[in-house]
Amino acid sequence: MATIKLCKAADVSPGNSLRIEPENLPPLAVFNVEGEFYVINDTCSHGDASLCDGEIEDGEVECPWHNAKFCIKTGKALTFPAVEPQQTYKTAVIDGEVCIDI
Ligand code: FES
User: Fold this and answer.
1) Which one of 7, 37, 72, 80 has the fewest CB atoms closer than 10 angstroms to its CB?
2) C-alpha to C-alpha distance for 5 and 94, rounded to whole angstroms
3) What is the pLDDT of residues 23-44, one digit of tens each?
4) Atom of ligand 1 nearest to the CA of 44
5) How far apart (Å, rounded) are the C-alpha atoms in residues 85 and 68?
6) How many angstroms separate the CA atoms of 68 and 83, rounded?
7) How far is the CA of 55 from the centre of ligand 1 (A)?
């Protein structure tokens, strides 16, 4: 297992997200939900939309293309048309940097 740094925690304010394109990984979405950080795959499991372009509310993100909602914490698809979950990553803030284990 390896820990990789994605961004500074200060770069993602509460209620917002940031798309990161790390080497050798799919595009990732870093979310700040009331001060807690979560990382899931950014590309919607239903199509090619970026979830970072979606609306965030109550710990859920709504896909900007067809309005499927996902739980940011678990990656679970909550509404159609998406049925497949988003991959999630174990996330921690270390020395002010948002990091994931892969
Ligand atoms: S691309 Fe996200 S719901 Fe269709």
Assistant:
1) 80
2) 9
3) 999 999 999 999 999 999 999 9
4) 2
5) 11
6) 9
7) 13
Which residues span the domain enclosing 26?
Answer: 3-101
Q: What is the CATH number of the domain that holds 67?
A: 2.102.10.10
Q: In percent, how much of the chain has pLDDT > 70?
A: 100
Chain segment 76-91, per-residue pLDDT in tens: 999 999 999 999 999 9
Arithmetic mean of pLDDT over the chain = 97
CA of 87 to the centre of ligand 1 (A): 15
The arrangement of strands across the sheet holding 36-41 comes to: 3-8, 97-101, 88-94, 36-41, 28-33, 17-20
Whether residue 1 has pLDDT greater than 90: no
So what's the pLDDT on residue 15? 97
Count of domains for the chain:
1
Phi and psi at residue 100, in whole multiples of 5°?
-125, 155
